[in-house]
Amino acid sequence: MLFDQFSTLIQAAVVGLGVALLPALLVEEELSSGTLVKAMDRPLRSCGSYYLVWPKERGAYPPLVKFRNWLSAECAVAASKGVVSG
Q: InterPro entries from the xrefs (predicted)?
């Protein structure tokens, strides 16, 4: 199966349609609750990258600033644990 949305992929895995390759950040709640479990004991490196993008004129929009700061902090925590490189 091919999914174009992470949320749909997560739900498919939750109902048992297969395994999903996802950033851990997106399934923390499901992992904590035991709804999903890791298929491997180690993270996988990806050759791709993700970019947070927004319209130039919205860079100071308060909800965006809050989300950007939260995401940066989460990435820093992951990097300090050796989960990601960069």
A: LysR-type_TF_proteobact-type, LysR_subst-bd
Rounded to an integer, what distance in angstroms lies between the CA atom of residue 37 and that of residue 65? 32
- The Cβ of residue 26 has, within 10 Å, a number of other Cβ atoms equal to 13
pTM (2 d.p.): 0.55
Q: Do the beta carbons of residue 47 and residue 58 sit within 8 Å?
A: no
Structure-block tokens of residue 37: 């479990």
Alpha carbons 77 and 19: distance in angstroms, whole number: 26
**Residue range 3-54, pLDDT digits in tens:** 789 899 999 999 988 888 888 889 999 999 999 988 777 666 666 666 676 7
- Do 22 and 6 touch, CB atoms closer than 8 A? yes
Q: CA 47 → CA 50, 70, 85, distances in Å? A: 10, 24, 12
